[in-house]
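ok so for the tutorial part 2 we go from a plain amino acid sequence to predicted structure tokens. step 1 is just haveing the sequence, like this:
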Amino acid sequence: MTVQDTADSAANISPPPDLDDSRYELVERIGEGGVAVVWRALDRQTGMPVAIKLMQKKAFKLETVQRLAQEVEILVELSHPCIVQVYGTGVAASGPPYVAMEWVEGPTLRQRLVSERIPPLIETISIVEQIAAALPAAHCASIVQRDLKPENVILRPDGVVKVLDFGMAKVLRSGSPALTSGIKIFGTPHYMSPERAQGKPVTAAADVYALGIITYEMLNGRRPFHAKDAMSVLLAQCNDAPPPMEEAVAPELEEVVMKSLAKDPEVRPSAGDFAHALRKAAALDEA
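step 2 — the prediction. this is what the tokens look like for a chain of 287 residues:
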């Protein structure tokens, strides 16, 4: 790369947006989705790093603003060591809202699975148990996460697991506003329960199904349903039995995972029961 190339590249890097708040200093842009950009920032009051989730201008419309507001309300309400915390909110000088959240150091579970297709069993059980411990905190508050997937799970270096991104969450309490209408289906097809794929009402069992898919993937090295397009994956979620796991997976483990992937949500175990059964099947239960 020439000196001129370096200068041209530097010129194309836009400066951090102005949050119109002297408390936070944006340091590094670390990720981008369809709705928001995530920055690593410095909290000048505490000297600690935080994550700033800033809505993109192209997504600045009523429904996305409502979803961001609902996510903030949910995360403020949910207090659990395995769920990311919210510190505050604000509006950037250019207009879009932002959320200041707990900064979590570490790779996502997706990045972990890319580096090692099948993690050690003891690590898999620990990750599943911590996700399963976080879910009841939401379920007891009548909240379904609805977008549980490896990309939304961060693994801290000390082994603590953090579940993030409740932007797709469904609040089941009466009187809560409906943010979607018609036959819209939001989420990731590879982790979507059959009832969600069919547009039916969801319960906590939808999150258990997603956790079952994640567990299947960590034990087996691949997801159960693959297809060339999203609709085909959704049809498989609704109609096809998950393929048997590799021979290296103990039958006892496979049986527990398959129960979590039952097409009928009433048949699936709770998140806690699933994690307990998985540990017992892995012969890691001390009892």
